Model the fold of this input.
Amino acid sequence: MTREFAIVWAHKDRLLDGFANTVWLCVLATVIALAVASPITMALMAQNRPMRTLARGLVDGMRCIPFLLLAYIIYYGLPTLGIRFNNWTAGLCALVVYNACYIAEILRGAWASLPREHIDAGHAFGFSGWRLYRRIILPPILMACVPVMGNQMIQIIKDSAFLTIIAVPELTHEASAIQSMYYVPFAAFISAVLLYWVLCRIVEMLVGLIERRAEKRR
Amino acid sequence: MTGVSRRWHKTLGIITVVAAVTAVVLQIMAGPAKAAPLDEIKKRGSLIVATEDDFRPFEFVQDGKPTGFDNELLAMLRKAAPFQINQEIIPWTGLLAGVTTGKYDVALTAVLITKERSLSLDFTMPIADATHYYVKRKNDGSIKEIKDLNGKVLGIQAGSGLLQRLPELEAMLAKTGGKIAKVVEYTSYPEAYQDLALGRTDFVINTVINLQALVDEKSNVFALGQAVSGPSFPAWAVKKDNAELLAFLNGFLAEKRKDGTMAALQKKWFGKSFDDLPTTFTPVF
Amino acid sequence: MRAYDYLSLLQGATVTVSLSLVGIFLGVPLGLSLALIRWAGVPVFSRAIAVYVSVLRATPLVTFTLLIFFALPNVGVPIDPVPAAIVALAMNTSAFNCEIWRAALADFPRTQLDAATAAGMTPGLAFRRIVFPQIWRVSLPGLVNEMTLLIKSSPAIAVTGIVDITRAAVRIGAQTYEPLPPFLVATALYFLVILGFVRAQRLIETHMERKFGFA
Done:
């Protein structure tokens, strides 16, 4: 067993490259998904009925399909329609689209529970539309959502492992490549599990930090 | 916590620990017994072989039935063996690791003989001649010979002997001052071929047998390139120091060579027969 | 896509649903057992379970399935594809279920337990008659939500070679070089299965609301 871990240690560069890829992919996906989620949330809360129904349909639909299938469709299916991403971009795209819908739903829930007085005050001071959203509505929503966003980021990290199947060189893929070449499955995958755990703990700690700072400000 | 509820909790805890441990133990249902030398196999009454699930034309699944060169040989082996044979169809990435740890007795698939693998595996006599070639898109006019592979993207299977012998191609390219731009590793070849067709990679390396079958089937999509390695042979693999099992398999294969079945199968699946395969092969790489 | 291809996708659907159900049926009671141990404060095991839950909730199902299927034989525990998938699914969902049950147990009024002991009930009887009937109702929405999540991550079991919906679709695509049709059909199949679960979840919540006054 020590021999196995020694082999994995000898190839730790590769494993750490995969880890870095996973981190980069997930951070990027979270940020972009958050940005994409905002207009979706606005559509979900829109006065305009058709837009609301469309957004509702999109969000509910995305929550009823497995992430891997979405990744497959974007990666293997879109090319038949002429859109061809490389595996990294396809993976990022899938993560963004899938999680933006979940985040939009979370933001919508927070928005719906926002005290009416704040919005009325905003209207009274002449805020409306995008300005209202950006200055009055979004900040408290984001602060309230930090713990849930933390959970969502952990979900993104776990979904990213599916991308090994479309050959994105993330952590699970690299661990699998190392073990299939040197026959060290236990050491390789345990190391990967450990790295995922460390990553999730870091996210949880960051969420805790932000929550404490938000409490101080309030 | 009061003394009463603490004792209450403790008893409850012990009961559930026992229940949980039992549940976990029951969950890890006994798989096949560990792979073993020939007498143990004869005593156990069954041999466990592992084949890949999509590696045309050696083995693949058609309409739910495993078929291909190796699967046909397996059917004959079943008749010749004095024990039952259990077949596991699993992805390549765990196949050889499974043989080295004794989960499977035989890797009954096209395992390329390499020096590194010989450290932990023993090989039967080769079942085919499998020099490594590359395949490219038919309409890709930029690749005509080896030196054109400079700066191109390669698709290849993770954990394969083809990947292990990539240094040979890299040496060839270095002679003309070139190098491969990027190596993308796939879990299995069908995905690699699909990406080649879609233009995400520029060439895929596999044995001439696999590629010939691919080009024959999809002649309007792919075209065969040139050899990128020296001689290479696939064979069946068993765990190291399992001489009796190896002898049994070699005996079977030698018989099939002698009575012409091997040649007939090779012609059927590979398009031609390899009549002067060596009986042993010491790999240089 | 030929008729046989559709059939293989439907067969994959039966595999997906049956393995997911087995994973759920094993994972829910296992989660309860783990939650009870933590609630009871059993010395060494409580800490061990806390670590187990933390790690399993942070590990992607794909990586965990690969670990169980390829690595266990490596350390001397031989395991077949189907048992490996079931173990991976059950262990993964048990960690989430443990937290759900624990939340319900933590909210459980201590006074009722003390009353039960005072009335002379053994811990087992008290659990069966007093604790469990209340906590399962509170936990149900969370558990059903977790079941939906399990089915959505079930494509991970394809890495063991099991032919579920995903692997069936991949095989068809690999043969025909037209991956979009089988993937769209596969997505539709998953959609139907998950929709069924979500509908059942809504139904249960409304029923509970009506019958017990909370959801």
